[in-house]
Amino acid sequence: xxxxxxxxxxxxxxxxxxxxxxxxxxxxxxxxxxxxxxxxxxxxxxxxxxxxxxxxxxxxxxxxxxxxxxxxxxxxxxxxxxxxxxxxxxxxxxxxxxxxxxxxxxxxxxxxxxxxxxxxxxxxxxxxxxxxxxxxxxxxxxxxxxxxxxxxxxxxxxxxxxxxxxxxxxxxxxxxxxxxxxxxxxxxxxxxxxxxxxxxxxxxxxxxxxxxxxxxxxxxxxxxxxxxxxxxxxxxxxxxxxxxxxxxxxxxxxxxxxxxxxxxxxxxxxxxxxxxxxxxxxxxxxxxxxxxxxxxxxxxxxxxxxxxxxxxxxxxxxxxxxxxxxxxxxxxxxxxxxxxxxxxxxxxxxxxxxxxxxxxxxxxxxxxxxxxxxxxxxxxxxxxxxxxxxxxxxxxxxxxxxxxxxxxxxxxxxxxxxxxxxxxxxxxxxxxxxxxxxxxxxx
Length: 443
Known about the structure:
Blueprint: H1 9-22, E1 52-57, H2 64-78, E2 83-88, H3 97-108, E3 115-119, H4 122-129, H5 138-144, H6 146-149, H7 152-158, E4 159-160, E5 163-164, E6 166-168, E7 172-173, E8 176-179, H8 181-186, H9 196-208, H10 223-235, H11 238-243, H12 254-266, H13 282-287, E9 294-296, H14 300-307, E10 314-317, E11 324-328, E12 330-333, H15 341-352, H16 354-364, H17 380-391, E13 393-396, H18 406-422, H19 425-438
Parallel strand pairs: 1-2, 1-3, 11-13
Antiparallel strand pairs: 3-12, 4-5, 6-12, 7-11, 8-9, 8-10
């Protein structure tokens, strides 16, 4: 494998920042000076029902666009005189690459959008809450009754210093095995693999038939990081997995080695061009006649495949993760100095509302963060995910910002990319150990 595919964190951030700079939007409104109660640190108060609403996100794929538009439709119905500026940016190294890089520039420069998509948990807290660039939302949770309808575990993930800092619009599950029944049946497999042992047995049969077993898109770091977090949860028990982020489990533990060896072996059964396939293209590859039989990816895949009108797929927990729910959540917060703060607050109210979540999630392929949804609008997969969310052991996603700070997530993705490109378990594990040390994970 070519060493040139390896990126360090500085190169990674430079690439995404260049992409973001090229896509920079002209409508970067300077913050004003008139706060709206509750008191904020800045931001121009838009007149009720007027002005603009600029929202940053990386939702540009099928299912995502339509789901976001469902939220915008509710907002526009209530506030018809507000112009919505949908500042969605695609591309970059993994999910949110360009958007996150441009957002960081604007937030640090005191020119935030009115609100932005962010993964619930450490991604927001370490990047923008601790540096003082976000408003706490405890008052909004009280006004809207969110404390009564969001699970306490979710509020805890959203909170820092005793206050929540963003409004979750959904719950996603990371550990889903998407598979094409027709391809498994072609090699005599009547059920998807429940374990990694079964996976490799089916993968060998698929390989004999000329069918890639596993969809992988590692043109940029991140995709393999998603797959690997699910192998980690399959190899470590939940407490040991959580211990990776507080120092009670070492990243040079033999169980981490075993997980890396599993992923390294899985590459032998991936689409042969996985190093040149991008995350944005993998769903098209999956639905193609000559595409892979299986893919380990979050349940946003459901929304994407539905948007393509594709029906030859089904789902199961990723191998060896039955009873576990690797959880992440998309959310929106309120930046200090939001130019149209009142409109931003009204958007957050809709994001957390029953109406908003029941409009958004059936399209997005996610389940509501609220505990009181209208079950009639959700399909078979989503109802099964709700049931699992209520009964499974929850563990936080690494790749999607719930488990660890963003700096570690970047280093983690690069470490796993070393494995993807160089196929060297020891080198990848050494990079993980270094990343954990740089992140100062300790008891």
